[in-house]
Amino acid sequence: MAWTYLMFAGLFEVGWAVGLKYTEGFTKPLPTVFTVAAMVVSLFLLGLALRELPLGTAYAVWTGVGTVGTVILGIVLFNDAADIIRLGCIGLIVAGIVGLKLSSAI
Question: How far apart (Å, rounded) are the C-alpha atoms in residues 5 and 106?
């Protein structure tokens, strides 16, 4: 169950990272509420995952999922660059996440 919590925590991290863009410096109330709520849920789920997973593994996967998801949504929603080097680096992050999962006993 810890890995499930961790994956959802990472997805909520994507939500609040992208949400920050929509708050326009926390000047828009509704996006700000959703962004802060996503932050709270993300940290709560990370805390649940940390009951069973090692700190370093959980934090690296949480930030990795958040990074990959945020980059993908940045490309899709905000026309961020999608060159081969950038995508290759994202692939390395995904490989690291998979490697941490495979090396975990849980």
Answer: 13
